[in-house]
Amino acid sequence: MPFITNFSSGNVSFPLDIVTSATPNTETDDAYIKYTAGARTWGLSAVYVGGKNPGLTVISGIAYRIKKWTTTASSGGVNPNVANKDPGSNTSMSFTFGSTNAGAVTSGTGGPTFIGGFVSGATGPGGWTGPNADSYIELTSAATSSIDLFSSSATASMKYEFFMDLIVL
Amino acid sequence: MFLYSENSAVVATNFTTSGTANTEVDHLFIKPGVRTIGLQAMYLGGKGAGLTAISGIAYRIKAARTTATTGGGSVITPTPKDPGAQAAKATCSGSASAGFTTPGTGFVYIGGCVSGAAGPGGWVAANGDSMPVCEGGANQSLDVFSASGTLSLNFELNVEHTE
Distance of alpha carbon B73 from its chain centroid, rounded? Predict the structure, then answer.
Protein backbone atom coordinates (compact mmCIF):
# COMPACT_ATOMS: atom_id res chain seq x y z
CA MET A 1 0.00 0.00 0.00
CA PRO A 2 1.17 3.54 -0.57
CA PHE A 3 1.99 5.77 2.37
CA ILE A 4 0.37 9.12 3.02
CA THR A 5 2.15 11.99 4.75
CA ASN A 6 0.38 15.15 5.81
CA PHE A 7 1.94 18.62 5.56
CA SER A 8 -0.14 21.33 7.25
CA SER A 9 0.55 25.03 7.63
CA GLY A 10 -0.82 24.95 11.16
CA ASN A 11 2.00 22.56 12.07
CA VAL A 12 4.44 25.45 11.83
CA SER A 13 4.81 27.67 14.86
CA PHE A 14 3.14 31.07 15.00
CA PRO A 15 1.92 32.86 13.03
CA LEU A 16 -0.40 30.03 12.06
CA ASP A 17 -1.90 31.67 9.00
CA ILE A 18 -0.49 31.95 5.51
CA VAL A 19 -1.15 35.37 4.01
CA THR A 20 -1.67 36.19 0.33
CA SER A 21 0.21 39.02 -1.32
CA ALA A 22 -0.29 42.57 -0.04
CA THR A 23 -0.66 43.55 -3.70
CA PRO A 24 -3.98 42.45 -5.24
CA ASN A 25 -3.84 39.86 -8.01
CA THR A 26 -0.21 39.08 -7.34
CA GLU A 27 0.95 35.50 -6.92
CA THR A 28 3.06 34.38 -4.00
CA ASP A 29 4.88 31.06 -3.73
CA ASP A 30 3.66 29.96 -0.30
CA ALA A 31 4.78 26.38 0.17
CA TYR A 32 6.74 23.60 -1.46
CA ILE A 33 7.53 19.91 -1.19
CA LYS A 34 10.82 18.46 -2.34
CA TYR A 35 12.14 14.91 -2.17
CA THR A 36 15.51 14.63 -0.43
CA ALA A 37 16.22 10.94 0.01
CA GLY A 38 14.89 7.60 -1.13
CA ALA A 39 13.96 6.15 -4.46
CA ARG A 40 10.20 6.04 -4.69
CA THR A 41 7.83 7.99 -6.86
CA TRP A 42 5.72 10.45 -4.94
CA GLY A 43 2.98 12.92 -5.62
CA LEU A 44 0.42 15.32 -4.28
CA SER A 45 -2.89 13.52 -3.77
CA ALA A 46 -4.96 16.23 -2.06
CA VAL A 47 -4.87 19.81 -0.82
CA TYR A 48 -7.50 21.08 1.63
CA VAL A 49 -7.59 24.84 2.24
CA GLY A 50 -9.77 27.54 3.71
CA GLY A 51 -9.86 31.28 4.24
CA LYS A 52 -9.53 32.15 7.93
CA ASN A 53 -9.95 35.89 7.98
CA PRO A 54 -11.65 37.11 11.15
CA GLY A 55 -14.56 39.50 11.17
CA LEU A 56 -14.70 40.43 7.49
CA THR A 57 -17.68 42.51 6.35
CA VAL A 58 -17.14 41.94 2.65
CA ILE A 59 -16.59 38.74 0.72
CA SER A 60 -13.60 37.82 -1.43
CA GLY A 61 -12.06 34.79 -3.08
CA ILE A 62 -8.62 33.23 -2.94
CA ALA A 63 -7.13 31.28 -5.85
CA TYR A 64 -4.66 28.47 -5.16
CA ARG A 65 -2.35 27.35 -7.95
CA ILE A 66 -0.21 24.24 -8.00
CA LYS A 67 2.98 24.49 -10.02
CA LYS A 68 6.12 22.46 -10.58
CA TRP A 69 9.63 23.91 -10.62
CA THR A 70 11.58 21.63 -12.93
CA THR A 71 15.24 22.69 -12.91
CA THR A 72 15.94 23.53 -9.28
CA ALA A 73 13.65 23.05 -6.33
CA SER A 74 12.34 25.75 -4.06
CA SER A 75 14.03 26.30 -0.72
CA GLY A 76 13.74 28.28 2.51
CA GLY A 77 10.70 28.64 4.66
CA VAL A 78 10.30 26.31 7.58
CA ASN A 79 10.62 22.55 7.53
CA PRO A 80 8.05 21.36 10.07
CA ASN A 81 7.90 17.92 11.59
CA VAL A 82 5.37 16.29 9.33
CA ALA A 83 3.89 12.90 10.14
CA ASN A 84 2.68 9.82 8.35
CA LYS A 85 -1.03 9.10 8.71
CA ASP A 86 -0.29 5.50 9.63
CA PRO A 87 2.28 5.07 12.42
CA GLY A 88 3.40 1.84 10.76
CA SER A 89 4.43 3.59 7.55
CA ASN A 90 7.85 3.19 5.97
CA THR A 91 10.05 6.05 7.14
CA SER A 92 12.94 5.64 4.74
CA MET A 93 11.78 8.49 2.53
CA SER A 94 12.78 12.02 3.34
CA PHE A 95 11.20 15.24 2.19
CA THR A 96 11.86 18.90 2.66
CA PHE A 97 8.87 21.15 3.24
CA GLY A 98 8.66 24.88 3.52
CA SER A 99 5.92 27.42 4.00
CA THR A 100 5.88 31.16 4.24
CA ASN A 101 4.08 31.56 7.54
CA ALA A 102 7.41 31.46 9.35
CA GLY A 103 9.99 32.38 6.72
CA ALA A 104 10.20 33.26 3.06
CA VAL A 105 10.18 30.58 0.40
CA THR A 106 12.76 31.01 -2.34
CA SER A 107 11.14 29.82 -5.55
CA GLY A 108 12.86 27.22 -7.71
CA THR A 109 13.75 27.65 -11.35
CA GLY A 110 12.65 26.10 -14.61
CA GLY A 111 9.06 26.51 -15.60
CA PRO A 112 7.08 26.64 -13.47
CA THR A 113 4.64 24.21 -15.01
CA PHE A 114 1.06 25.02 -14.04
CA ILE A 115 -0.57 21.71 -13.10
CA GLY A 116 -3.63 22.38 -11.00
CA GLY A 117 -5.65 24.80 -8.96
CA PHE A 118 -8.83 25.61 -7.09
CA VAL A 119 -10.46 28.45 -5.12
CA SER A 120 -11.85 29.13 -1.65
CA GLY A 121 -13.77 31.98 -0.08
CA ALA A 122 -11.98 34.38 2.26
CA THR A 123 -13.65 32.73 5.23
CA GLY A 124 -14.65 29.34 3.93
CA PRO A 125 -13.39 26.02 2.67
CA GLY A 126 -11.93 24.89 -0.62
CA GLY A 127 -9.64 22.20 -1.85
CA TRP A 128 -8.76 19.57 -4.38
CA THR A 129 -8.49 15.79 -4.28
CA GLY A 130 -7.18 13.66 -7.10
CA PRO A 131 -10.25 11.74 -8.29
CA ASN A 132 -8.07 8.73 -9.00
CA ALA A 133 -4.44 7.67 -8.81
CA ASP A 134 -3.80 8.88 -12.35
CA SER A 135 -4.72 12.39 -11.25
CA TYR A 136 -2.08 12.71 -8.53
CA ILE A 137 0.56 15.33 -9.24
CA GLU A 138 3.65 13.17 -9.32
CA LEU A 139 7.36 13.74 -9.29
CA THR A 140 10.13 11.21 -9.54
CA SER A 141 12.60 10.98 -6.72
CA ALA A 142 14.76 13.76 -8.16
CA ALA A 143 15.52 16.48 -5.62
CA THR A 144 15.99 19.04 -8.37
CA SER A 145 12.30 19.76 -8.68
CA SER A 146 9.52 20.71 -6.30
CA ILE A 147 5.74 21.00 -6.17
CA ASP A 148 4.69 24.45 -4.97
CA LEU A 149 1.45 26.00 -3.76
CA PHE A 150 0.85 29.56 -4.92
CA SER A 151 -1.94 31.91 -3.82
CA SER A 152 -3.50 34.95 -5.42
CA SER A 153 -6.43 37.17 -4.47
CA ALA A 154 -7.95 40.38 -5.74
CA THR A 155 -8.07 41.47 -2.09
CA ALA A 156 -4.77 42.14 -0.34
CA SER A 157 -3.38 40.04 2.52
CA MET A 158 -6.01 37.32 2.87
CA LYS A 159 -5.31 34.73 5.58
CA TYR A 160 -5.70 31.03 4.94
CA GLU A 161 -4.61 27.62 6.15
CA PHE A 162 -3.67 24.53 4.10
CA PHE A 163 -3.44 20.77 4.63
CA MET A 164 -1.64 18.73 1.96
CA ASP A 165 -1.64 14.96 1.54
CA LEU A 166 1.50 13.55 0.01
CA ILE A 167 1.47 10.01 -1.38
CA VAL A 168 4.57 7.85 -1.64
CA LEU A 169 3.97 5.00 -4.09
CA MET B 1 -14.42 -3.14 8.40
CA PHE B 2 -17.05 -1.54 10.60
CA LEU B 3 -17.97 2.12 10.45
CA TYR B 4 -19.02 4.24 13.44
CA SER B 5 -20.36 7.77 13.87
CA GLU B 6 -19.56 10.25 16.65
CA ASN B 7 -21.53 13.48 16.90
CA SER B 8 -20.76 16.57 18.96
CA ALA B 9 -24.47 17.33 19.48
CA VAL B 10 -24.61 14.31 21.80
CA VAL B 11 -22.56 16.41 24.21
CA ALA B 12 -23.78 19.95 23.49
CA THR B 13 -25.91 21.71 20.91
CA ASN B 14 -22.96 23.93 20.06
CA PHE B 15 -19.24 23.36 20.37
CA THR B 16 -17.33 26.63 20.68
CA THR B 17 -13.84 27.70 19.60
CA SER B 18 -11.48 29.26 22.12
CA GLY B 19 -12.29 32.53 23.87
CA THR B 20 -8.83 33.65 22.76
CA ALA B 21 -8.24 34.26 19.08
CA ASN B 22 -5.94 31.84 17.25
CA THR B 23 -5.81 29.44 20.18
CA GLU B 24 -6.42 25.72 19.74
CA VAL B 25 -8.98 23.71 21.72
CA ASP B 26 -9.00 19.90 21.72
CA HIS B 27 -12.70 19.02 21.30
CA LEU B 28 -12.85 15.32 20.53
CA PHE B 29 -10.68 12.24 20.75
CA ILE B 30 -11.04 8.61 19.72
CA LYS B 31 -8.89 6.02 21.47
CA PRO B 32 -8.54 2.56 19.94
CA GLY B 33 -9.57 -0.60 21.68
CA VAL B 34 -8.19 -3.90 20.50
CA ARG B 35 -8.89 -3.05 16.86
CA THR B 36 -6.95 -0.60 14.71
CA ILE B 37 -8.94 2.56 13.97
CA GLY B 38 -8.91 5.00 11.08
CA LEU B 39 -10.55 8.40 10.80
CA GLN B 40 -12.54 8.26 7.58
CA ALA B 41 -14.44 11.56 7.51
CA MET B 42 -15.34 14.76 9.33
CA TYR B 43 -18.51 16.66 8.41
CA LEU B 44 -18.71 20.00 10.19
CA GLY B 45 -19.73 23.58 9.94
CA GLY B 46 -19.86 26.95 11.65
CA LYS B 47 -23.20 27.67 13.34
CA GLY B 48 -22.87 31.39 14.02
CA ALA B 49 -26.30 32.95 14.53
CA GLY B 50 -27.02 36.35 13.04
CA LEU B 51 -23.39 37.21 12.45
CA THR B 52 -22.77 40.49 10.70
CA ALA B 53 -19.16 39.69 9.89
CA ILE B 54 -17.69 36.59 8.30
CA SER B 55 -14.85 34.49 9.68
CA GLY B 56 -13.21 31.11 9.19
CA ILE B 57 -12.66 28.15 11.53
CA ALA B 58 -9.81 25.66 11.14
CA TYR B 59 -10.23 22.05 12.29
CA ARG B 60 -6.95 20.19 12.87
CA ILE B 61 -6.47 16.45 13.17
CA LYS B 62 -3.62 15.35 15.38
CA ALA B 63 -2.58 11.93 16.65
CA ALA B 64 -1.30 11.55 20.20
CA ARG B 65 1.28 8.82 19.60
CA THR B 66 3.00 8.62 23.01
CA THR B 67 0.02 8.68 25.37
CA ALA B 68 -3.66 9.10 24.57
CA THR B 69 -5.78 12.06 25.59
CA THR B 70 -7.98 11.36 28.60
CA GLY B 71 -9.98 13.17 31.22
CA GLY B 72 -12.69 15.77 31.10
CA GLY B 73 -15.31 16.10 28.44
CA SER B 74 -18.22 13.71 28.04
CA VAL B 75 -18.34 10.20 26.67
CA ILE B 76 -19.67 9.86 23.12
CA THR B 77 -20.66 6.28 22.42
CA PRO B 78 -19.72 5.44 18.82
CA THR B 79 -22.82 4.48 16.84
CA PRO B 80 -22.44 1.70 14.26
CA LYS B 81 -23.67 2.76 10.82
CA ASP B 82 -24.84 -0.79 10.27
CA PRO B 83 -27.19 -2.08 13.00
CA GLY B 84 -25.70 -5.50 12.47
CA ALA B 85 -22.21 -4.33 13.37
CA GLN B 86 -20.64 -5.08 16.72
CA ALA B 87 -20.19 -2.33 19.30
CA ALA B 88 -17.10 -0.23 18.76
CA LYS B 89 -13.96 -1.28 20.57
CA ALA B 90 -12.75 2.32 20.50
CA THR B 91 -13.85 4.97 22.98
CA CYS B 92 -14.63 8.59 22.25
CA SER B 93 -15.13 11.76 24.28
CA GLY B 94 -16.15 15.29 23.39
CA SER B 95 -15.59 18.65 25.02
CA ALA B 96 -17.73 21.59 23.94
CA SER B 97 -15.29 24.36 24.82
CA ALA B 98 -12.90 23.59 27.68
CA GLY B 99 -10.83 20.85 26.12
CA PHE B 100 -9.57 17.82 28.04
CA THR B 101 -7.91 17.79 31.45
CA THR B 102 -5.20 15.34 30.47
CA PRO B 103 -4.04 16.10 26.94
CA GLY B 104 -2.26 13.38 25.08
CA THR B 105 1.46 13.54 24.37
CA GLY B 106 3.54 13.00 21.30
CA PHE B 107 1.09 14.83 19.07
CA VAL B 108 1.72 14.71 15.34
CA TYR B 109 -0.24 16.81 12.89
CA ILE B 110 -1.92 14.68 10.23
CA GLY B 111 -4.77 16.56 8.61
CA GLY B 112 -7.51 19.10 8.79
CA CYS B 113 -9.97 21.32 6.99
CA VAL B 114 -11.69 24.70 7.27
CA SER B 115 -15.27 25.97 7.41
CA GLY B 116 -16.89 29.37 7.42
CA ALA B 117 -18.31 30.72 10.67
CA ALA B 118 -21.82 30.10 9.39
CA GLY B 119 -21.39 27.47 6.72
CA PRO B 120 -20.25 23.95 5.94
CA GLY B 121 -16.87 22.33 5.65
CA GLY B 122 -15.47 18.86 6.00
CA TRP B 123 -13.06 16.25 4.86
CA VAL B 124 -13.36 12.68 3.59
CA ALA B 125 -10.38 10.39 3.18
CA ALA B 126 -9.79 10.01 -0.53
CA ASN B 127 -9.13 6.31 -0.04
CA GLY B 128 -8.27 3.83 2.68
CA ASP B 129 -4.61 4.80 2.65
CA SER B 130 -5.48 8.42 3.44
CA MET B 131 -7.07 7.73 6.80
CA PRO B 132 -5.21 8.82 9.96
CA VAL B 133 -4.60 5.61 11.91
CA CYS B 134 -4.06 4.41 15.49
CA GLU B 135 -2.96 0.83 15.97
CA GLY B 136 -5.17 -1.49 17.96
CA GLY B 137 -4.37 -1.65 21.66
CA ALA B 138 -2.02 1.33 21.51
CA ASN B 139 -2.19 4.04 24.17
CA GLN B 140 -2.82 6.60 21.44
CA SER B 141 -5.68 8.78 20.26
CA LEU B 142 -6.88 10.76 17.27
CA ASP B 143 -7.86 14.27 18.33
CA VAL B 144 -9.77 17.07 16.58
CA PHE B 145 -8.82 20.65 17.49
CA SER B 146 -10.42 23.95 16.48
CA ALA B 147 -8.80 27.37 15.97
CA SER B 148 -10.10 30.67 14.64
CA GLY B 149 -8.98 34.26 14.35
CA THR B 150 -12.35 35.21 15.83
CA LEU B 151 -13.11 34.08 19.35
CA SER B 152 -15.93 31.83 20.59
CA LEU B 153 -17.45 30.71 17.29
CA ASN B 154 -20.11 27.99 17.40
CA PHE B 155 -19.79 24.86 15.30
CA GLU B 156 -21.03 21.27 15.07
CA LEU B 157 -18.85 18.26 14.34
CA ASN B 158 -19.69 14.79 13.01
CA VAL B 159 -16.93 12.21 12.74
CA GLU B 160 -16.74 8.73 11.21
CA HIS B 161 -14.17 6.13 12.15
CA THR B 162 -13.49 2.61 10.95
CA GLU B 163 -12.33 -0.45 12.85
Answer: 12
